[in-house]
Amino acid sequence: MARTEHVIAVDVGGTDTKAALVAGTPGGVRAVERRRRPTARHEDGDATAEAVVEQVAALADELRAATGREAAALGVVVPGIVDEAGGTGVYSANLGWRDYPFARRLAERTGLPTAFGHDVRAGGLAELRAGAARGLRSAVIMPIGTGIAAALVHDGRVLDAPGEIGHVDVGHGEPCGCGQRGCVEARASSAAIARRYAARAGHEVRGAAEVAALVRAGDPDALTVWHEAVDALARGILQVAALLGPEAVVLGGGLAMAGPLLTDPLRTRLDELITFQRRPELRLAALGDEAGCLGAALLAIDTLEER
Amino acid sequence: MARTEHVIAVDVGGTDTKAALVAGTPGGVRAVERRRRPTARHEDGDATAEAVVEQVAALADELRAATGREAAALGVVVPGIVDEAGGTGVYSANLGWRDYPFARRLAERTGLPTAFGHDVRAGGLAELRAGAARGLRSAVIMPIGTGIAAALVHDGRVLDAPGEIGHVDVGHGEPCGCGQRGCVEARASSAAIARRYAARAGHEVRGAAEVAALVRAGDPDALTVWHEAVDALARGILQVAALLGPEAVVLGGGLAMAGPLLTDPLRTRLDELITFQRRPELRLAALGDEAGCLGAALLAIDTLEER
Questions:
Q1: Alpha helical stretches, state H, chain B
Q2: ipTM metric
Q3: I want to staple A24 with a disulfide (CB 3.0 to 4.6 A). Which of A17, A296, A301, A304 is the partner?
Q4: CA of B235: which chain A residue's CA is closest?
Q5: How far is B148 from chain A (nearest CA, A)?
């Protein structure tokens, strides 16, 4: 990019929607002004999609008014199954839409050149260009939160592929919400860790962060649940290593806040299990929960550059 | 390609080496003259690599003499771990070399512009450009023989990735030659099918083709072993479907000669196991054991086009 461009970037989440007016410079991207709202929802998935379009337009107006800046483009990312080339939200289990033409509707509603993408892949793009995966040719960028998914980077690009590492069968046999058994996500997502600890210990916890604190305190139930989560993650990572041979795995999302409490035993478990596969380096994500929004901004900027 | 070019293509195998003088036309590739030899071998892996280089040069001379044609380039593919960009054979378990600079040595020895690649990925390239995967944007091209590997096609290109679908853990727990347990290959390779049938039935068979004949005849041991192979293949394919979402899986190698005896139960098993994944179409490879050689020719032709 020859000069600074401003774009509106929106990361539509299952719970909250994050928006920012982002400055794209030759040196990178930087959020100038941010907003966060509960995602608009209706009973009907298509009505939810319509409401999301309205919410994006309102956030764009608000960010422009607050900064006094015009925006050259809009970038929006959503969860679920996304057809990036076609500009449609194919399916969101959580938000309910099916085959909704987001790119076209957003462009009509805002009058801005619009880029549309997938939240996890966009977050991976941000980590690749401006975060923990910078300079890598191949990587798996893996946010771990309520669910687990991955952006697959190969030959310096984020593949337009499902990356559903959370739903790889690693053999533990427990059922998953997706209908399969043995999924990584059924043991290693933040939600699974909290749920499995509660079932074992007989009392609720606020989330995986509380389980992490109990691991540090030596609580035996927490240690078991944590160890089983680490084992599932290691086995899932090995499957990707056999198929794609990434240089590094970048762990993000809420669970990565545990830092070395997660990466140290995970590295040990990978060392125990690995045979012929390329040994991926383990890294922690650098951009936190802003990755999706910055990725949406990068998609918007790429759209401008292609013109 | 504007006009017909002739190239020498060589597929170095663990047992046999196949060579051809190939005509590349605007319409595709066609072998004009073929040779097949036992692969040159020595105790020492580097000596084997040197002997392979000599064998390739001798085959090139022979093919040129037999056809009276000059060759514009050379394409050579080898098994094992291959660094395509660096032009080296990183490791072959079977042939023993480590970090051997094939591309440079072959170019020096033959004086021809030389393309160097991986046998399975080159075979996948041939199926993609001129075989069963023609026109697909994404596919898994999976030869099943003594071992099982895959060429991963994404966005119309063969990824420079390990593609070791044979060494994905699908949970059956049996040991594999690679040091892991539960690998697809330990139940579903031609070698595993023959070995497991012999262990169960108490008598040797000549290979998986004989087991396939016994399946057709209703032999219960053969049916069990075949069913377990199909289950392992289905579970391996599902892992790739979750990660990469290919449009089709193209089955090749010796085992694919079984045709619908393989694809019909595999399709049924995939239907039983699949939940959210994209359902890949199952196809049989079109180019048989010539795929690697034609892929080597395509790599050589691509080298000429880049000039």
A1: 45-67, 102-110, 119-130, 185-188, 190-201, 208-216, 220-244, 260-273, 291-305
A2: 0.93
A3: A301
A4: A169
A5: 12
pLDDT one-digit tens code per residue, B66-107: 999 999 999 999 998 899 989 999 988 889 999 999 999 999
What is the token pair recorded at A25? 């410079």
- Distance from A243 to chain B by nearest Cα, in Å? 4
Question: Cβ–Cβ of A244/B165 closer than 8 Å?
Answer: no
Q: Which of A305, A304, A298 is nearest to A118 (CA)?
A: A298
B170/A165 CB distance under 8 A: no
List, for residues B170-213, the tens digit of each pLDDT value: 999 999 988 999 999 999 999 999 999 999 999 999 999 999 99
Q: How many helices (H) and strands (E) does chain A have?
A: 9, 13
| Residue A268: pLDDT over 70 | yes
In Å, how far is B69's CA from the nearest CA of chain A?
37
Structure-derived torsion over alpha carbons of residues A124, A127, A128, A130, reported in degrees to the nearest 10: 140
Architecture of domain B5-124+289-305: 2-Layer Sandwich (3.30)
Q: Is A167 on the interface with B (CB under 8 A)?
A: yes
Segments making up each domain of chain B, as ranges: 5-124+289-305, 137-285
Thinking of the domain A136-285, which architecture would CATH place it in? 2-Layer Sandwich (3.30)
Hey, is the C-beta of B238 within 8 angstroms of any chain A C-beta? yes
Q: Which residue of A has its CA nearest to B140?
A: A243
Contact yes or no for A148/A41 (Cβ under 8 A): no
Per-residue model confidence as pLDDT tens digits over A119-154: 999 999 999 999 999 999 999 999 999 899 999 999
N- to C-terminal Cα separation, chain A: 12
Task: Check residue B68 and give its pLDDT.
Answer: 95
Query: Count of CB atoms within 10 A of residue B109's CB?
Result: 16
Residues of chain B numbered 89-108 and touching chain A (CB < 8 Å): none
- The CATH classification number of B137-285 equals 3.30.420.40
